[in-house]
Amino acid sequence: MLKSLMLIVNPFSGRGKAKEFLYDILEQFCHKGYLVNVFLAGGPDSVEELARKYAGGFEMVVCVGGDGTLSDTISGLMYSEVRPPVGYIPMGTANDMASTLDLSHNPVEAAKRIVNGTSFPLDVGAYKDRFFTYVAAFGAFTEVSYSTPQNEKRALGHLAYVFRGISSVASIKPKHTVVEYDGGVLEDDYIFGSVTNSTSVAGMVKLDPSDVSLSDGEFEIILVKQPMNLVEFSDLVDNVTHQNFQSENLKLLHSKKVRFTFDEPVDWTRDGENGGRHRVIEIENRASAIQLIL
């Protein structure tokens, strides 16, 4: 008996190359006995809406696109009572989750691994009825990913983020922040803060895999204070490069829940997209909410 599979394709990811591999991807699933229904995002329904409306009726959901496509697929499933296992064929720009999960960037190979893979529990972040897969963040460079035009992402790939990041350096201002987490309370002026469930953020900040578990019910929280001079700035860059997250200006925390309180509303990014403006935001970990196929 054929098994039902929902294939969500973001035709704009990976500089528009997702469509080029569609037949080869379908061939892998069909040969393994799947009845595939293809849903193209970008029409009347977004990826999240497609997953929310239809995913519950399938035995497996596979998304083709970037980290945002995976995030939206999982977000849609979080609104559903029935959550089939999810496969991910990465074809985006930064592909942080693909790096964290050690997925193949060859779409045909990635499809082969899915049909031969097993389910793995994945924690999901939640705040104010919104969900994220690998990062929610504020401060320096966080607006870059969602303010970079899609045509620049397609044309330049990861360089588009770098160019935008360089141009935003002058606008970096610290945010006075109270951070309440499982281990206590911190209060200081931070230029960056992130809540992550990934070993890679924006393809640039890397965490030691031994410090990160995707299904332990805890987030990794990174806080960066503003360096006061060039020496501190150099030390900060060096610490990030060498994954030293327990320095004067750089902290790494672990917590199931975290609450940020600012003096004024602050812009956030959610898995590389606009996460809204918040003066107070409480983020909690939904442990093992999704089964991801690896």
What is the strand and helix layout of this fold?
Layout: E1 3-9, H1 22-31, E2 34-40, H2 47-54, E3 60-65, H3 67-78, E4 86-90, H4 96-101, H5 107-115, E5 119-127, E6 130-132, E7 135-139, H6 144-147, H7 150-156, H8 158-167, E8 175-181, E9 184-196, E10 200-201, E11 205-206, E12 219-225, H9 230-241, E13 246-247, E14 250-255, E15 257-270, E16 273-293
Helix pairs in contact: 1-5, 2-3, 7-8
- Span from first to last CA? 23 Å
Q: In DSSP terms, counting alpha (H) and pi (I) runs of 4 or more, how many helices?
A: 9
Number of strands: 16
- The assigned CATH architecture of the largest domain is Sandwich
Any overview of this molecule?
The chain is α+β, with helices and mostly antiparallel strands and 294 residues long. Helix content is 27%, strand content 39%. The chain is built from 9 helices and 16 strands. The chain has helices at residues 22-31, 47-54, 67-78, 96-101, 107-115, 144-147, 150-156, 158-167, 230-241; strands spanning 3-9, 34-40, 60-65, 86-90, 119-127, 130-132, 135-139, 175-181, 184-196, 200-201, 205-206, 219-225, 246-247, 250-255, 257-270, 273-293. The strands form 3 sheets. Strands 5, 6, 7, 8, 9, 12, 13, 14, 15 and 16 form a 10-stranded antiparallel β-sheet that branches. Strands 2-1-3-4 form a 4-stranded parallel β-sheet, with helices on both faces. A two-stranded antiparallel ribbon has the order 10-11. Strand 15 (257-270) and strand 16 (273-293) form a beta hairpin. Mean pLDDT is 84; it is low at 144-170.
